[in-house]
Design brief:
The complex is a heterodimer of chains A (about 210) and B (about 280).
Chain A: H1 14-17, H2 21-29, H3 33-44, H4 47-63, H5 74-90, H6 101-108, H7 113-116, H8 120-139, H9 142-152, H10 158-165, H11 169-186
Helix pairs in contact in A: 3-4, 3-5, 3-9, 4-5, 5-10, 6-8, 9-11, 10-11
Chain B: H1 7-18, H2 24-36, H3 38-57, H4 64-81, H5 93-99, H6 103-109, H7 116-119, H8 135-148, E1 155-156, H9 160-168, E2 184-194, E3 197-206, E4 214-221, E5 233-235, E6 238-245, E7 248-255, E8 258-264, H10 268-277
Antiparallel strand pairs in B: 1-2, 2-3, 3-4, 4-8, 5-6, 6-7, 7-8
Helix pairs in contact in B: 1-2, 1-3, 2-3, 4-8
The chains are: A mainly alpha (about 210), B alpha+beta (about 280).
Chain lengths: ~210, ~280
Amino acid sequence: MARPRNNGAWEMTDGATSGGTRQAYERLVRPCLPSLYRTALRMTGDAPAAEDLVQDACLKAYCGFDRFQKGTNFKAWLFRIMTNRFIDTKRGAARAPALDPRDVDVDTITGIDSTTHGNPEIHVLYKTFRSEAFRAMDTLPPDIRAVVALSLLREFSYQEIADVVGCPIGTVRSRLSRGREQLRDRLMDFVPSSAGIARNAPRGKES
Amino acid sequence: MTQPLSCQDARDALSANLDGMLDADTSARLAAHLTDCDACSAYARDVAFLQAALPEQLDGTPDEDAIWDRVHGVLDAGEAATRGSTRPAANTPHRSAHRLPGRRNFLKLGMAASVLLAAGIGGGLYLSRSAKGDVVAETINDYLTFRASGKALHVSGEVPADIELWLEERIDFDIAIGGDRTDFHLAGGRLCSFLGRRLAALHFVDGTDAGYRDASLYVMRAEGLDLPHHTPRALGDRAALVTRRRGVGTVIWKSKGLLHAAVSPMVESDLLGFAAAV
């Protein structure tokens, strides 16, 4: 997979441990935050929940920092804690009522204006694709959603995703395939028509 | 090239191909399938488009400093909280009411400390939980963190009904508090999560000049939450659990399908009085 690798970039080094546990931990965590947040946002679908999840994961990791094995991939370890946390909260527990969808459309997700150049029509369309994309993610089962979210980051190989999620590579592959298929089914309306000439025709006979 | 691919196999292969994880043999079989199958060809174009578009759509710019401050803050919070119940310098509900006029700030500031309700943090900074869903420990932890972490309320204002309304729009039950709280007024609220359910944290402050006192009232659906075995105390016509840990008291009771937890460092009789008035 032609993706940038960060293996080793945030691995614990002797230098990192010399300033005390708290400093060593913070030095390792800080560079992971943007990726951690993006992934949390894709898992949870709303910004407050994503921030909660990141904070939760960082705290759990800090409390378990003595169990982190020096020389192993800190980033994968941190993402594993967050992914487990996400799946745990989704599994079993009664779902919390989602925030008002307007939260996602209007306020929570930032960065809309800069991409639409003030054109209101594009703005609406863009927002809709965006909010529908989040809704589509939300319909994926948590284990599939987690793998898709990790994949969207484009920083992990299949092997690394397998390590983070704790499943075989083949499972990563099949979950990604199922996730993409479900996202595509839900987001057909937003795929440019030139990309979907067979859209309204019945699907070919599936063998 | 050997066996032709089924449509499902072709779609799995397409997915792997998008990640550069397809071997040459399967790649050739995929190409052969796509020349024969219009549906899978269309599918291939669609998923390629989504592969390119979704990372941008499913994105939000992280406020890195703010998130870092949050992480930093809660690591500090337990230590600060255990230093005593001095009046929080930067985070009194009074001051929050002035610097937190609306939703935009709420969204920027994020969900203060709510994660702790579900985090189960050890390490001595927080109360450990005896069992999953320890309402006592989690509400105290959240209260301590809220007090110590310098985080702001999600909603605040002069009109209590507006605060309740704001919260009720974001939860799936009526908060339904009432009664006469002569000493305390509702200064603001936060949304928290606990065991997968969303709950409201209402923050009250003493409106008199008798010295700073505050209390948090957590309201959540009671389903599946059992109170720890403990001798109940009478709270009006209700049975309540009264405990105190780390200098912070809780009074917990169930009413009309909801569980309420009043949390405050004030003396027990005052806390019971507050709880009875809610």
